[in-house]
Amino acid sequence: MSTNEYVQDAQQRVSAVGGKLKRFNIKKYLKPLLPFVPEVATPERRVPVNERLMWTALSLLIFLVCSQIPLYGLQGAGKGNDPLYWLRTVMASNRGTLMELGIAPLVTTSMIIQFLQGSGLMQNFDDSLKEDRILNAALQKLSGVVYTAIIASSYVSSGMYGDVSALGSSNVTLIVAQLTLAGFIVVMLDEVMQKGYGIGSGVSLFMTVNICETIAWKVISFQTIQTPYGPQFEGAIPAFFHQLLFSSNKLLAFWEIFYRPYGANGLTLLVTVIVFGVIVYFQSFRIDVPVKSLRVRGQTGNYPIKLFYTSSMPIILHSALVSNYYFFSQMMYRRFKGFMWVGLFGTWQELDYTGEAIPVGGLAYYLSPPMSMWQMISDPIRLVIYVGIYLTTVIFLSQKWIYFSGESPRDVSNRLKQQQLTIVGYRDVDALKVLQRNILPAAGTGALVIASITLASDVLGCIGSGTGILLAVTSTYSMYEQTMKDPEMARAFSGMNMAQMMQQ
Fold first, then answer.
1. Is 1.10.3370.10 the CATH classification of the domain at 23-199?
2. Is 269 exposed, middle or buried (0-12, 13-18, 19+ CB in 10 A)?
3. What does the pLDDT average to over 200-220?
4. Which of 250, 408, 433, 468 is spaced 20 to 30 Å from 98 by Cα?
5. How many angstroms separate the first and last alpha carbons of the chain?
6. Given a cut of 50, is residue 452 above it in pLDDT?
7. Closest CA relative to residue 243, chosen from 258, 221, 228, 225
8. Residue 163: which region, alpha, beta or left (left: phi > 0; alpha: psi -120 to 50)?
9. Closest to 364 measured CA to CA, from 378, 389, 347
10. Is 352:80 a contact under the CB 8 Å cutoff?
11. Is 14 helix (H, G, I), strand (E, B) or coil?
12. Lowest mean pLDDT among 137-141, 171-175, 197-201
């Protein structure tokens, strides 16, 4: 059986199952709640460029300020046992602040809703209907806030901020309320961007800025960190000059400059620059499928199918799944450490010099990447299992996401028909096969390339993690493309000629 026949057979079997199952009608439960769900009004006029820039900057400023406001009521707790230690950069979260959870609840709930709708378990929303768009937005907001409240309660009750009895009922309530309110703020800021007041997506913007901030901090920070060899500068550049100028052993200092294991160094800085260039290089790979209009004779164009067809979404989904697994694994380990079955999910240990908890056994250990070349060499089984799980998960999510997000070959074929476009040299019945031949390999190959770059970056110690660099580049590039598709924005940034060129 060929790939196309297999895909068609799978779609028919899914449709048959979906026909037997009764979809959950979420709409009838959402309608009574609409008066109580706040909504950002859709702009009645085209928002000028200056206003869009202002709203984007204001949304970003609010998010960054919340990322620096400490949670009230912690009483010095919550400095260790961080299950999201490696994923905070990707999830745009900051430990011990209002943005403790970052965009994780919003990404997780969006993923769950997409899965339920794509699998046929929940009724879909028709974007062409105004009522359905309002209901869909209300569902996203309600689920995001409710999930934030649940995770916040779990955080506090699991002892992540210290013993619950020591915190007191009032502080516990305040912490949960603050985190829930912060989650609501993130949801509303994202809606401000999505409604057209800003540029791009709020989630992508917050994530990209947080990643860039992390990279800049690890490169130029003058803050000192405690290491087994004494205090050192956290930033790679200050550490470079400090070791070179003040160390008595110049040979050892030179070695520390490029290979110090505690913090960013010259080698990781070089790797970061190389990874950035590689991702930008692959970002431009695409296949142009020639199309022509059935309404206007002689009008032709191209439908681009990029190598990164699903962009960074499989990586975001994988990060969201792993972050939630880390949290529940560490919560179970703290409460039921003596049970053997709990250790199978993950065994955790605190680092003496940072106070962070890292997985040292169980499935959580094999879901975390080796943090140095020595760890990779000393435990090759872990490396093989981690690579296998990572590649399999990312490719699987990429292949499934195109159906859940409405970017499958059939969805693209239907959109072309609605726009009265057809692929040059093929009939309408053959257009689906052409799209399947290009989209399905692009989704799989792109996910494999993305996962391989991310794996290599993480193993080599890329600053901000390979996942972070990938998300920053792809999100920035996506926002740039959206900007250039808007003639007014394109003229403002690049002039009229560039706008015309992008439209062509």
1. yes
2. buried
3. 83
4. 468
5. 39
6. yes
7. 258
8. beta
9. 347
10. no
11. helix
12. 197-201
| CA–CA distance, 483 with 499 (Å, rounded to integer) | 10
The pair of three-digit structure tokens given for residue 41, joined into one six-digit string: 């009004």
Distance CA 212, CA 99 (A): 17
Fill in the amino acid letter for 305: I
- Alpha helices for 195-312 (secondary structure H): 202-220, 236-246, 250-259, 266-283
Lowest mean pLDDT among 54-58, 75-79, 297-301, 318-322: 75-79
Hey, what are 145's tokens?
Answer: 């806030």
Dump the DSSP string for 385-405: HHHHHHHHHHHHHHHHHHHHT
Give the Cα separation of 465 and 148 in Å (integer). Answer: 25
Measure Cα distances from 327 to 38, 128, 139, 156, 453 in Å: 30, 38, 25, 12, 26
Cα–Cα distance between 337 and 360 in angstroms, integer? 13
Q: pTM for the full model?
A: 0.73
The most distant pair of C-alpha atoms in the chain lies apart, rounded to whole Å, by: 78
- DSSP, res 348: E
- Rounded (10°) angle between helices 496-503 and 487-494: 130
Separation CA 301–CA 86 (nearest Å): 44
CA pair distance 455, 279, nearest whole angstrom = 13
Residues of the chain with CATH 1.10.3370.10: 23-199, 243-504
Contact 220, 235 (CB under 8 A): yes
Q: Are 370 and 359 in contact (CB under 8 A)?
A: no
- Residue tagged 């309530």 (tokens): 173
For 278-290, how does the pLDDT look when each residue is reduced to its tens digit (9 = 90+)?
888 888 788 888 8
Type of residue found at 350: E
> What phi, psi does 180 have (nearest 5°)?
-65, -40
Sign of the four-CA dihedral 474, 371, 352, 159: positive
The answer to whether the CB of 494 falls within 8 A of the CB of 299 is no
Helix axes 49-66 and 169-194, enclosed angle (nearest 10): 160
> What is residue 76's DSSP assignment?
T
Q: CB-based burial of residue 139 (10 Å sphere; 0-12 exposed, 13-18 middle, 19+ buried)?
A: buried
Q: Give, in words, the CATH class of 243-504.
A: mainly alpha
Q: Which band of pLDDT confidence, cut at 50, 70 and 90, is reported for residue 14?
A: very low
